[in-house]
Write a structure and sequence with these properties.
The protein is mainly α and 971 residues long. Among the domains are: 205 residues, P-loop containing nucleotide triphosphate hydrolases (Rossmann fold), CATH 3.40.50.300; 40 residues; 63 residues, Winged helix-like DNA-binding domain superfamily/Winged helix DNA-binding domain (Arc Repressor Mutant, subunit A, Orthogonal Bundle). The strands form two sheets. The chain has a five-stranded parallel beta sheet with strand order 2-3-4-1-5, with helices on both faces. It has a three-stranded antiparallel beta sheet with strand order 6-8-7. Helix 15 runs antiparallel to helix 16 and helix 24 runs antiparallel to helix 25. The protein starts with a helix and ends with a helix.
Length: 971
């Protein structure tokens, strides 16, 4: 370990932070041969921790998905066995390691175990959650160092899982993640580059760059190898030619004759081997980074004794190393150099022999790798027929482990080779259209909608309506889905055509699905527009689904039908909620957890839109717990996290909402979900008075939504947030432009829930800007007229929308005799919603109007109420505005803006609001797991809060903390 003391110290410091309870990841970059693996090996050798190591394969982007995680699971299985691993996975449906069997078949569930839920995105998310749970429980037992080597070769599935684990690291105490990669491999379009850039923004991620050795270090390295200090001339040559690269310096120091090129340096040791050993090295170079002994024997055709005799000199010379029951080159660059030395015909024949050997005996490669490795070898052998069939099988294997990006790569290869293989359809037992359909589905799963749209259009050209109407109808639905996600127009035509293509008689599941998809599109329209048609379509889909016994589509249709029903009026909300209950019952009956969670998503969203915040939070919280149980926290769980954080924000429980948001963001949700979380983050930050954080949230949100189709729940709240930030900075002209731009670009009629806040924000801006410069005031007048026109068109359903409507009316009132009554109506409406923040803001506006009218008593009453609300919320800007108005109106607020100190409050000054909540539960005798369940946090988070609280209170035990809480009036 010459010249690496600084990097070792960095790693030891990282381990120390982990021991102190801080999440830590170290990314180690450097050029090939610089000593990254040697550095990590030395560090882990001395660390008192469980070491989990997985390496990425060179064929990763085209080959085995989740390769490094399969390797570490295999090693863990050798030490613990399937039962030992299963014991680390409590709470997993079925109580088995069946989910991990996707990576390691040895972990399959015992015979007779009921199958767990399955699905497209669900199983992949569940796999991620199981790996996370496994690491969490391993870390409970002892420190764990997880090392992922050669991440530049990682397939997209491995990158996704690695990113998920790093972002979730706060929930796992005692885990250090170390990732190595070749920095010289990262060209501008390399897929690892954006991931590294994103990870750099995570506070607990550190970068360590392994730089070349100095001249002095190179001299020390050569001396350690040769046993004597090098001559000046040799040192100069080695240092100049190696550039301080330890691998190259070692090769130069060991070679009596200096090669003329880098390639010669890399394979000099190979060329000194006996001819039979060189031949084996050339064969091994075609096998990839690691080749089993049995596979090498099959490819070489040598008996075991002959193979051992040929391998022994290569192992002794450190050209090859033994690893388990196979071999690998000392460095991947050496293998690459040897492989490049193969003659073209020799390379083709070798790869063909590998493919044939694996086809004859799949056990020659690790479990689950046979299909992918055959695909790799046949492609390298330029055998179009076998490359096509193996790529088709490899695509199926990738799909089985949720590696949809790799599946799409393999399917694209099938499509590219199709014309080169005359009997392609017979070989794979599927026609060209089937390949296209499968590729469309894979493109949709990975979110490559441009590619999916092109594939869908190609498939539609091959699926005439006259020959295969149902098949064409399903493709039309797929194309419509792609167009909708890309923000293209005309996609509804595809949905109507799909329905028209499928006969109504006899009733079929395909027609039910087509009708449900069409009805689902209608719910984006205003509730009053074509409601009868919408309801008729949804009910027809429901009737057919029930008739043909398609419970999943029945559940989907029930959820969609709720958007067609009126919500105002006695008993209507109860009727809608009964439909959601029925949808959940039908989905649960067939274990369709996707539809089960969809019902929770729809219901909580609808309740929040109506201002039923407590009920919305309850439904979302239950749904989120279910999403975690079924391994769907990143997908459906992210949506439910939004649906939980939003009512919590409405109720003024901002700290709790922020924790829900932060936990969801750590799971790296899809962009469209991240948009909702970022918007709520900005709302809370601005209300607290952190304008910088709010501005950052706006910029991040704009980046996420860049190029995305219009969605009312994202674009309209973004306009509101940006308007209010401009107002807070007194940038009224800019605020007017934001509102005007939103009115021009977006239609408000379909979205009263999100349109009313925009109209109110615009009205506030117009009021504030009216007293400004003449040009700004004229713009405010013009915008005010436009806002009145838009407001006249909008309905108002539920308490919150009604309160917004009354607030808008009060802001836009021009008759002084009506002003007081208008504000009184708005105040009563907001009081009925249980939303403290908008109520406080309306009270402030009402107080301003009262002072302007000379009503000091009315202003005083409103300001006192507003002050108490703003104080309890911690809404600093609002508090300052209240204090300013009170001072200008010479109104005394007394202690309304300053909470009275409780006995011993000085000891609580250092506790956050979340820590106070934890302390209250500690005082009741709750365990960390109970606290986590009550506060909707992880047990790990609770275990971090409790010792922090003990330290701040200056007590040594939970009992003493409970006593302190009692004395301070917290229990």
């Amino acid at each position: 370990m010459v010249g690496r003391a600084g990097q070792l110290a960095e790693l030891e410091s990282a381990l120390g932070r982990v021991c102190d309870g801080a999440p830590t990841t170290v990314l180690i970059g450097g050029e090939a041969g610089i000593g990254k693996t040697r550095l990590v090996s030395e560090f882990t050798r001395c660390a008192d921790a469980r070491i989990l190591t997985g390496g990425c394969l060179e064929l990763g982007t085209d080959g085995l998905p989740f390769a490094p995680f399969t390797a570490l699971l295999r090693d863990l299985n050798r030490h613990l066995g399937p039962d030992g691993i299963a014991a680390l996975l409590p709470g997993i449906p079925g109580g088995t390691t069946a989910g991990l069997a996707r990576l390691l078949p040895e972990l399959a569930a015992p015979p007779g175990t009921p199958p767990g839920p399955d699905g497209d995105g669900q199983s992949r998310a569940r796999l991620f959650e199981q790996v996370l749970t496994l690491l969490e429980h391993l870390a409970d037992q002892s420190l764990v160092i997880l090392t992922i080597e050669d991440a530049h070769w990682a397939d997209s599935a491995s990158r996704d899982l690695l990113s998920f684990l790093i972002r979730s690291q706060q929930s796992i105490g005692g885990l250090l993640i170390v990732v190595t990669y070749r920095s010289d491999e990262l060209h501008r379009t390399h897929p690892l580059r954006p991931l590294l850039a994103e990870l750099d923004r995570i506070p607990w991620v550190r970068r360590v760059e392994v730089s070349p050795l100095s001249l002095r270090d190179t001299s020390e390295l050569i001396a350690s190898i040769t046993g004597a200090p090098p001559a000046d001339r040799l040192l100069d040559v080695v240092y100049r030619r190696s550039g301080g690269n330890p691998l190259f310096a070692e090769t130069l120091a060991c070679s009596p004759d200096l090669p003329e090129s880098l390639r010669d340096l890399l394979i000099a040791g190979v060329r000194r081997l006996p001819e039979e050993s060189q031949e084996i090295a050339r064969m091994a170079s075609a096998g990839g980074d690691w080749t089993s002994h049995r596979l090498l024997a099959a490819v070489s055709g040598l008996a075991d004794a002959e193979l051992d005799q040929a391998l022994r000199p290569a192992v002794a010379a450190n050209v090859l190393r033994t690893d388990g029951d196979g071999y690998l080159f000392r460095h991947a660059l050496i293998r690459e150099a040897v492989h490049d030395e193969l003659l073209p015909g020799e390379r083709v024949r070798l790869h063909a022999r590998y493919a044939e050997a694996i086809a004859s005996d799949p056990a020659l490669v690790p479990s689950g790798r046979a299909e992918v490795e055959q695909a790799y070898h046949w492609h390298a052998a330029h055998d179009a027929s076998h490359a096509l069939t193996s790529a088709w099988r490899a695509a199926a294997a990738a799909n089985a482990v949720f590696a949809y990006a790799e599946q799409l790569v393999m399917l694209s290869r099938v499509l590219e080779l199709w014309l080169q293989v005359p009997d392609a359809a017979e070989r794979i037992q599927a026609d060209h259209l089937k390949v296209l359909e499968t590729a469309v589905d894979a493109a949709d799963k990975v979110g490559d909608w441009e590619r999916g749209l092109a594939l869908a259009e190609a498939a539609l050209r091959e699926a005439p309506a006259s020959a295969e109407p149902v098949r064409r109808a399903l493709l039309l639905q797929a194309r419509a889905h792609m167009q909708h996600n890309l923000g293209r127009s005309g996609y509804t035509d595809d949905l109507h055509e799909a329905v028209a293509l499928i006969p109504a008689d006899p009733p079929t599941a395909a027609r039910a699905k087509a009708l449900e998809a069409l009805a689902h599109e209608y719910h984006h329209r205003p509730r009053g527009q074509a409601r009868a048609e919408f309801r008729q379509i949804a009910e027809e889909a429901l009737a057919i689904a029930r008739q043909v016994g398609d419970a999943a589509t029945e559940a989907a249709a029930l959820c969609t039908l709720t958007w067609a029903l009126p919500l105002s009026g006695p008993g209507n909300l109860e009727q809608v909620r009964a439909l959601f209950a029925e949808a959940r019952e039908r989905a649960a009956a067939v274990h369709d957890y996707q539809q089960l969670l969809k019902a929770a998503i729809f219901e909580s969203d609808l309740l929040e839109g109506l201002g039923e915040h407590e009920q919305a939070a309850d439904v979302a919280r239950e749904g989120l717990a279910a999403a975690r149980k079924y391994g769907l926290a990143r997908t459906s769980g992210a949506t439910l996290a939004i649906n939980l954080a939003e009512p919590l924000t409405s109720l003024g429980r901002w700290d709790e909402a922020s924790e829900v948001i932060e936990r969801a963001l750590q799971l790296l949700p899809p962009p469209i979900n991240r948009a909702g979380l970022l918007r709520l983050t900005g709302d809370i930050a601005l209300a607290h008075g952190d304008a910088v954080a709010a501005a950052e949230a706006i910029e991040d949100l704009k980046k996420v939504l860049e190029g995305a189709a219009f969605k009312d729940e994202h674009h309209l709240p973004l306009a509101v947030l940006e308007t209010e930030l401009r107002d807070a900075r007194a940038q009224y002209d800019a605020a007017l432009s934001v509102v005007s731009g939103a009115l021009e670009k977006f239609g408000l009629l379909p979205s009263p829930r999100y349109a009313w806040p925009l109209l109110v924000a615009g009205a506030r801006t117009c009021t504030a800007a009216g007293a400004g410069a003449a040009a700004v005031g004229a713009g405010a007048v013009a915008l005010g007229d436009r806002l009145r026109t838009e407001a006249a068109k909008l309905d108002a359903e539920g308490r919150t929308q009604h309160a917004h409507q009354l607030t808008f009316a009060a802001l836009m009132t021009t008759d002084p005799s009506e002003t007081a009554d208008r504000w009184a109506e708005a105040i009563r409406a907001w009081a009925a919603t249980a939303e403290p923040y908008p109520l406080a803001r309306v009270l402030l506006l009402a107080a301003t109007a009262a002072l302007n009218a000379g009503d000091r008593d009315g202003a005083s009453d409103s300001l006192l109420r507003a002050a108490a609300l703003a104080r309890d919320l911690g809404a600093r800007p609002l508090t300052d505005q209240i204090a300013d108005l009170a001072q200008r109106g010479r109104i005394g607020l007394g202690s309304a803006l300053s909470p009275a100190p409780a006995p011993g409050a000085d000891r609580l000054a250092g506790l956050t609001s979340r820590e106070l909540e934890v302390l209250r539960l500690v005082a009741t005798g709750r365990s960390n797991r109970d606290i986590a369940a009550d506060l909707f946090i992880s047990p790990k988070t609770a275990s971090i809060h409790v010792p922090n609280i003990l330290g701040k209170l200056g007590v040594a035990s939970r009992g003493e903390a409970a006593a302190a809480a009692y004395r301070l009036g917290l229990s």
